[in-house]
Amino acid sequence: MSALPTTQEEPGESRYRSLEFPVVSRTNERSAARDRREAFPYRFPRDHRQLGGRFSVDENARRLTRFFYFERRLSHGLGSWTLSIPEFEVKLETARHIFYHADAARLLRERLSEQEKNLSVIDGYRSEEIDRFIEEVLSASDAAELLVGIHQVAGKALEVAYRHHLDDTDPVTDAPTLRAMKRILLDYEPMLGWAEAAIGAYIEGGVDESRLSQWRWHLQRLLGSIGGVTGTDPRNEEPSPMRISLKPYERGTVPVRDSRFVTFKNTGDYDVGDGEARFAPDSYESLRLRFFRTQRDEVDAIEAFGTFLWDIRFKDFKAEYDLARITWDEARHTEIGHRTLLAAGYDPFELPNRLTGSTCRGPMEPAYAMAEINLFGEVGVMKTINDLIKKAQEKDDALLAHISDFIRSDERTHVKKGQHILRCMTEMGMQDLELKTRELFTECLVSLGAVNKDMDVFTVSREDIEQLIGE
User: Fold this and answer.
1) Counting Cβ atoms within 10 Å, is residue 46 exposed (0-12), middle (13-18) or buried (19+)?
2) Residue 459 vs residues 193, 359, 438, 462, 463: alpha-carbon distances, Å
3) 32 contact partners, CB below 8 Å, separation of at least 6
4) DSSP character at residue 362
5) Pair 366, 312: CB distance under 8 Å
6) Which of 137, 204, 290, 438 is least surrounded, with the fewest CB atoms within 10 Å of its CB?
């Protein structure tokens, strides 16, 4: 295109400008603007961002939708493994990561809705190729392989894609996307760093490194066959054989613990599980230790809420998000219990772990398992915890008073969130749901030997279940 000199050029400026979009600049106005700038007393930091980026709104939304779906599916998938991970630290960390991925999905979902995407359209997005990849990842033979697939393959690929997106999108016009991705990456750095260290611990502990490397290569090739996380990378052939072609993925139903734990499942009563009472029944000391142990044993609540997330996937995003957050809360409660036992002078692994709740809930339909926790467990905690805090204060027991104050706050929130989650799980009325839950849990308790098998299945009261199962 030809260019002609413009009129009234500033000294030292180029005398040629494109005529495609002509500029009309007046010398007196430009000079006055310069004088005002020079007279302005404040020298604020300069914004060095420049206009320009690779993506249109539509392409940006296409990529963010895929990212959203990956994050959502990773949260689902980790939830499905919570029962099957034996190692205590890995189970707890996985509960955190369930929420990190759900929160990443929430941030991307909100950004997509700002770009004129209807929430129902976002939530309704499905990708068979991503589903196939995720379910192959979940077909890991053990927790070490799971971490390789979730973190070293999917997680690392997402992290790289987010960083490339930050470089490639317009930093001015698309600033909200940059902010969302930077917030997501705040969780990714410690999450991926922990995974690297955990996989190293598995290898140092005897897991075959070549097996993990073979699995990693297989999943990287599978991810490459769908164009990577963005769907735009060059595609290779799908690797063969695929585990899910031989056996479709199903979540586990049996709770497992690592070799440091002694477990029992035939009762919810710690004194019975221990073989004999450590303190006089109904004494403050007995009540205190029971509360500490109950918190440590909320590892079973991690398993419950994680499996609920998998079982009700795609029914309601808010319910999924709340389940992911509660799962993270339960990981904190488990940590609180573990650390409190240490602070109270115990080795937490010397105290047997109660498996009763997870053993009953694992195979159950999610609505009944959720009802047991929400209608019996959490409500039961709220009925007793105020009196517990009062007794702790009277005894000047700062340790118990401190932790129970925070746990009470969490449980109030869980009871409220649980009502929405239950409505997404079932159309049954609360009275019918409670009755059916009592029946099913009594049957389970009878099978475990926790209650007399001659007892009528409808005679186990709410209070009995609260005592026998806890949360």
Assistant:
1) exposed
2) 51, 21, 9, 9, 11
3) none
4) T
5) yes
6) 204
Residue bearing tokens 């996307």: 177
pLDDT on residue 5: 45
Task: Determine the 3-state secondary structure of 4 from DSSP.
Answer: strand
- What sign for the dihedral angle of Cα 205, 211, 214, 219? negative
- Biggest CA–CA distance in the chain, Å, is 102
Cα separation, 338 vs 340, whole angstroms: 6
pLDDT for 469 equals: 56
CATH number for 263-469 (one of 3.40.50, 3.10.450, 1.20.1260, 1.10.3860): it is 1.20.1260
Rounded Cα distance, 275 and 281, in Å: 14
pLDDT for res 147: 98
Q: Could you identify the residue written with the tokens 């009062």?
A: 390
With a CB cutoff of 8 Å and minimum separation 6, the contacts of 202 are: 143, 144, 147, 212
pLDDT of residue 37: 93
Strand partners, 354: 264
Residue found under tokens 């409660």:
333
Which residues does the chain have with pLDDT short of 70?
Answer: 1-19, 377-380, 450-471
**Six-digit token string for 170:** 């317009």
Rounded to whole angstroms, what are the CA distances from 429 to 129, 138, 378, 423, 434? Answer: 38, 35, 19, 9, 9
Find out if CATH 1.10.620.20 is the number for domain 57-246: yes
Partnered with residue 17 across adjacent β-strands are: 4
Rounded Cα gap, residues 158 and 188, in angstroms: 9
